[in-house]
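User: Show me a protein chain along with its predicted structure.
Assistant: Here is one chain, sequence first, then structure tokens.
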Amino acid sequence: MNTTTRQTRARAALAGSLALGLLALAPHALAAETLRYVALVDGGKQAGHQIVTREADGTTKVDFIFKDNGRGPELKEAFTLAPDGTYQTYQVQGTSTFGAKINESFRRDGDQAQWKSTSDQGTQTVTGTALYQPLGGSPASFSVAFNALSQRPDGKLPMIPSGTLTSRKVEQTQVQCGTQTRDVQLVAMTGVGLVPTFAWATTGENPRLFAYIYPGFLQLIEDGCQAAANDLETRQKKAEGQALVELAQRLGHPLAGTTLIRNARVFDSEKATLGAASDVLVKDGKIVSIIPASKKAAAADHVIDANGKVLLPGLFDMHGHVGRWDGGLNLAAGVTTVRDMGNDNATLQQMMGEIKDGTLMSPDVVPAGFIEGESKFSARNGFVVKNLDDAKKAVDWYAAHHYPQIKIYNSFPKDILKDTVAYAHSKGMRVSGHVPAFLRAQDVVDDGFDEIQHINQLMLNFFVDDKTDTRTLARFYLPADKTDGLDLDSKPVQDFIQTLAAKQVVIDPTLATFEFLHQREGEMSPIVADVADHLPPDVQRGRRAAEMNIPDDATAAKYNRSYAKMVEFVGRAYKAGVPMVAGTDEMVGFTLQRELELYVQAGLTPAQALQVATWNGAKYSRTLAERGSITPGKRSDLVLIDGDPTKNIADIRKVALVLKGDTAYYPAEIHEALGIKPFAPAVKVGR
């Protein structure tokens, strides 16, 4: 439930972003005894704080809390600094986004550094300046990094255990904090994680964190300066946009005119079969013809020699929360279309405009309109409503902006659910979502849902009643604890599956994401376990951090058995005729590949899993007329695989070339740019 550096949920989970991605960076309050920050969401609502106190003995203490969507980290840090601005000692305790305990410490004595967390421990001999990278820290770590970097004449800061942090000033501006005018600078940091991290710092000799902004989701800013947050966000989005345009120009290779893909085995996504070698001709982003492979090539402006490799339609990720930096990982995995399942509406509209204009390297986006109910647990995306009139206005907005469906969330008022679903249907829209609190999945099916998100929402059907509040972490711990004891052959389970099949209610299980239910501290995330040696060391380390509180071996064994039954449930549902789509809601790209492996584990054939990620994605996103299969007249969204994923689904990682319309992408080139070891040799476009 995070993004590329264990960040988030896409941006969908600040908590993941702060507690597991930003942690990699680092702050400190040199200038004041106590410095307060506020965390703002949804246009200015406070969702947390960071209080940084520098005590008389030189110890800095940090109290950080962020709560959104019924979850979030709570952290208490204490650290001291060496003369070069790096950590001499460091300690953090608290809980992560989903309740895992955090207990981490670091100490440097001379050239000897040692650290210990719940996920890892180590010692290292270090010469000269080097900054420890906390695994579970707060945004206060930014200040430490800024200050330490300011003392480095080469602008490079070695990191412990690995990596080198660099930064560059993107722009400088003045902001008004009450009656005071402040100079602040936007800094882009690279060398930690897979993409740059942007933050606002003070200027002068001892720079520190002024604001961290995750556009469209979070504004963490010094208390008293809240009025400046929106302007800073606008400036940051513009600066990030310029960097993203340069990235798109560097990694995208336009294919004007005709392109011939020779000798490719074409996957028939409608029938889930692999055909004989064919020549596929595309022109200006559209498929023109598919004919048996011929020794005599047709004339074309560009030629791709597939040499017998498998050609798939572009893959669909049917559960994303798209961010502007997600495009590289998605496209490198063969994902050419993402269904966005909840975002800041203005931010998403901007991204969709950039994609249409060709300035943002990204899959195409099919949006789902997010509607939440007002409560202390509310997720602050899309529209937050209190009554049926509010809900209808939200539906009207999404319909006017051509959203094919809406997504209902946890706090949505149950007494207006049925009427809201009917109203959305009257507008020609599909309805999906989480199961609102105090209801079961069976209830939302009865009220007309077309689709249900997440395996935990399906399992909760058997464990909750009208008094169970699933807006809390109970929605994760109940399925982890109780699915082990669920008899999948029992009448309630079989009746529920048959109802889903009879009503053709689609399930979006996001199985790979929910492997966090059984991942223990120190274990590599199953999402990347098979590819970890391709990832940068700091990303590998971050993916060893658990999210659930699993206190002992007995609990771990139970959660493992529960998860295995969730996988089995999905397989049984599919075989019973329940429609399914492949989504992630986690680290983009790699998670979809793992999701398809889990479908095969559940009992689907590899070809059926590929069909779910192609044909089904297009069908249930209502884009089948233009994508989802390799058919003349459709978009040339195509993926060339250096292997046969219809026999071995793990070959889905061996992406050699991706066409998105009239642009070619080389996954090896993208991965290199992100610091990832490529998975397959690139197949280059010739002339």
